[in-house]
Input
Amino acid sequence: MPVNTGKADRNALRQQVRLQRRAMTATEQAVCARRLARHAGKDPLVFNSRHIAAYLAADGEMDPWPLMERLWSLGKILYLPILVPFSDQRLWFSAYTPGDPLIVNRFGILEPERHHYRRISPAALDLVLTPLVAFDPMGHRLGMGGGYYDRSFAFLNTRRHWRKPRLLGLAYEFQRHSLLEAEAWDVPLDAVATEACVYHCPAP
Output
């Protein structure tokens, strides 16, 4: 059954999923993250990418860390999102390796210290591991409501032949819905990885 995703319903869905995520034990979360890493680490979308953006899990999000460890072992270069004053509520990304110093941004989320010489624009990435609240088989994504990822990758909606970076959502199986209504500004995902498998979405 399609999910009605008007503003009120989107907020209700966000609340519902966040409660489900928080109800998971640390062991359950870790098991799912390791299973996801096994599936996603072998997928061509991931394996054939070199410059990959990730994120540090918060609020019960699917933890990408096991997948990140696998990617480092394969020689991939990983980046984390950062907020910068001149970005007009868009994300930039900074190279990150384990042990690099982190700071807390204005949303209480850890991000790399702002080493400008290590910062790159979203367009320079090959792949983006994207957090989400809900997704559907068409690649529609419901985020936390801030719109940072949609604004940062809005340029992808104007491209017809060269779509880069690719967007790979990371989620638990229970975050999958049959249909989410898309807004005009939504940037669709290319695929979604869960603890069960990798879902490849149709081309927009």
